[in-house]
Specification:
single chain, about 325 residues, alpha/beta, Rossmann fold, Luciferase, domain 3, GMP Synthetase, Chain A, domain 3, 5-stranded mixed sheet, 5-stranded antiparallel sheet, 10 helices, 17 strands, globular, binds adenosine monophosphate
Length: about 325
Amino acid sequence: MKYSFNFENKRVLLQPSFSFDLSVMAIYPTLVSGGTLVVLPKKATANFMVMFKVLPKMGLNTWISTPSLMDICLMDPQFKPAIYSQLERFLFCGEELTHDTAQRLKQRFPNAQIFNTYGPTEATVAVTSVEITQSVLDHYSRLPIGYVKPGSRIMVKSNHARQGELIISGANVSKGYLNNPDKTAAAFFRQHETQAYRSGDLGYFDHDLLFYSGRTDFQIKLNGYRIELEEINHYLNQLSFVTQGVAVPKYDQQGKVQQLIGAVVLKQPTDDQLADSGKLKQALEKLIMPYMVPQRFKFYQRLPLSANGKVDVKALITEVNQHD
Ligand code: AMP
């Protein structure tokens, strides 16, 4: 199944707030196809211990969330088929689904289907999807975001390289931002009489399968090197002793990137942060170019999440640029 999901008679998780377009992905397909929306109360997500008690009682068949929420659920050893016996399908959208998260989920729920979907609010949520089977996991170290759904078109805009900005067009693309003609003109345009949107996402096609490679605005320059922060994140999250990590830039007074800082949650942190940092550097040096390895690491018990349940990279950038 590539594009459409049938929620008939299914109990579908509704977790994100209504201001996050991911909620749309649960609400309308479920109600239109005669399924049941099961709402996870906001106060449950505020306290993970409460959430771990509430979730098993919801009788869910279909799970829809960001991968970040899944990372939290995977910390609970009780998050397994014996407790969630009816859970048969997981749908992710809103941020990158890492290989590590998908593989750990597949190991916990070997018989469930996992889908990665991609799309921005401006294109009415998901415009691509792909099932992440064990063979997809074996084949790709960075997972595909999917096949483009019928009625939408995605073009890779680049001068010569295979990778470029993803331009989404189709009837699902919004007319623009309310009362903001300047921002609208910068992001939207007409293409062959269809509305088109400059996503700010970078990606490439391998035949008809689309891959995401980062945001145009998460590209930085450090000592002249162009660095894709999400590429570092990808390798950081592949390390077996890392639960979650993101690389963030630290700026000097002129606003130039001075160094890279890795914000990391370790699986088993020690008291010796210097040794932990050394271990991270050594492991990364084997995977990425030396100029991409963060110069410093900051350790967290949990990375901050935005109201939408994504890792709040902007909050981390603000933090590392404040306290030092
Ligand atoms: P939002 O409009 O808040 O849902 O955010 C949309 C943005 O989230 C996209 O433009 C991408 O940058 C990111 N995004 C959504 N889905 C994925 C995905 N499956 N993989 C990587 N990034 C994603």
